[in-house]
Every structure is written in C-alpha cells, then in structure tokens.
Write a structure and sequence with these properties.
- There is one protein chain.
- With 262 residues, this protein is an all-alpha fold.
- The protein has a domain at 20-78 and 92-172: Serine Threonine Protein Phosphatase 5, Tetratricopeptide repeat.
- It has 14 helices and no strands.
- Helix 6 (57-74) packs antiparallel against helix 7 (96-113), helix 7 (96-113) runs antiparallel to helix 8 and helix 10 packs antiparallel against helix 11.
- 37% of the residues are buried.
C-alpha cells in the first residue's frame, strides 16, 4: 500500500480517488507481481478445465499474445527511469498518459484477435484500469463490466475488477453505486487478495457522503478484523483524523464477567 499519508492529504479529497486507479501503490510499486498474477490467472482456471484450456491451440496463442502485450507494463515512464536505458530495450514512455494509451492499444488487439479466450477476459480488466487512469470512467465501466461478467466469482482478479468499478462510480460522483460496489467487493472476496480493501473503501465513501460517524465505525472494523495489514494501517490513519474532528467509533461492549449477577 501507499506510504503513510499526511494529515493534510487525509483531509483532502481521497488520494486514491483523486489520482485515479494509478494512485494505489499496490499497482505502482508491484507491477511485476501484477504480471505474475495476471499470467498465473491464465493458467489456473480450476481442475479439469486447465487441461482443456492448455489443449486448445487458440488459448495457447491468446496467452502468448497477452504475455507479449504485458511487456508494455514494465516499460517505465521517463520520470521513473532509475538508470541509463539499455540500448537494446524499448525507450521509456514520455508520460503515463502515453503509456496507458499504448496499453489500451495492445490489450485491445488481444481482445480483437482472441475474443472468446481467457486472455481476452484478463485484457478487459487491464484496459479498464488504464481507462480509469486516463480519466475515462464511462469507458472503464464498460471494460470492467465485460471482465466481471466473464470472470468466475472465486478468482482473485475479480477483486481488481470490482475495485475498479467502484472507482469509476466514485469518479462520476455516483456515491451510492460506489458504496454498493465496494460492499460487494467485501462480500464477494473469498481470497486473501487485497484483504479488507472493500471495507476501507466503504469508510472513504461514507466520509464523502458526510456520514463520518459511520465511517469511523467502518475504519474501526477494518483495524480489528484485519490487524497488521497495510489496509489496517490506512484505516488507522483515517480514524486518527476523524477522532480529531470528534468522530470516534463506539467502544466495544464490556464483557459480563459475572453472568449470575442480577
């Protein structure tokens, strides 16, 4: 997750939403992990279906095409470059916008060439994320809807799609829909992937709706249900700011140590 936010940033429009889907450090700092998850998702589709997919020449070709397109993700933006560029490597992108436009182009080609493949499903997610970063929530919504309709409910990457859909609603200021989507993220996440993020987003949206006491309760629940996780630390930071404003979660009920008493 992102490094600890300042009080000023926490009081301002949310850093996640303000910077779009790109702002989440999980995507910014762990792109190689994203690649592994995405490529792994192509190969892990569950039991007997794995053999069927690998035996299909079309799926194999589609997987290769997606892997090639994913190389764009690792190409840095010029400002990110830490060392001289390898002469044999492709040049860095000059801006994040240029990179996202190229990502959309590459993944759209995968979807066009292999429309019914597993790779095409995954490409829809990656297109939606890029569209969000470009400030195109309506386009992103369509791409993410295509992804969510096709992605099995028990797969980790589905969490990515739901979170992106929530961001899209939030960008459009459709806060009730965003809240509903983030609640679905909490309800439907059956993996340890991005644990607790849906509940954290619930608290954020409640703040934007002016429901700060309810937000404090949500953040407190994150901290208690998912201790020692990055999202719990973010929730704790939010709680501290709300406490300064006079909004504190209700204390837990005191246990009755003498059940036979009156």
């Amino acid at each position: 997750m992102a490094e600890k936010l300042t009080r000023k940033e926490l009081r301002a429009p949310d850093a996640f939403q303000k910077a779009g889907f790109q702002a989440r450090e999980w995507l910014q700092s762990n792109q190689r992990l994203v690649l592994l998850l995405v490529v792994g998702a192509l190969l892990v589709f569950g039991g007997a279906m794995l053999a069927n997919y690998l035996s299909s020449r079309g799926e194999v070709d589609a997987s290769k095409a997606l892997t090639t397109a994913l190389k764009v993700v690792e190409r840095p933006v010029h400002a990110e470059a830490q060392a001289p560029v390898d002469p044999e490597a492709e040049a860095p992108f000059s801006t994040q916008k240029e990179k996202d436009e190229e990502l959309i182009k590459q993944f759209a080609e995968v979807r066009q060439k292999f429309p019914r493949s597993r790779a095409a499903i995954t490409a829809a997610l990656l297109i939606g994320e890029a569209q969000l970063r470009l400030g195109r929530p309506d386009d992103a919504m369509k791409s993410l809807e295509d992804f969510l309709k096709a992605m099995p409910s028990d797969e980790a990457l589905r969490v990515e799609g739901l979170e992106g859909q929530g961001y899209a609603y939030e960008t459009k200021r459709q806060l009730d829909q965003a809240l509903s989507t983030f609640d679905a993220l909490s309800r439907d996440n059956k993996t340890d992937f991005l644990t607790g993020i849906g509940l954290y987003h619930r608290g954020r949206i409640l703040i934007e709706q002016g429901k700060k006491q309810e937000a404090a309760e949500a953040f407190a629940q994150v901290s208690s249900a998912y201790p020692n996780t990055p999202v719990a630390r973010l929730a704790s930071d939010r709680l501290a700011v709300l406490a300064e404003e006079g909004f504190k979660p209700a204390p837990p009920p005191t246990p009755n140590l003498n059940p036979d008493a009156g």
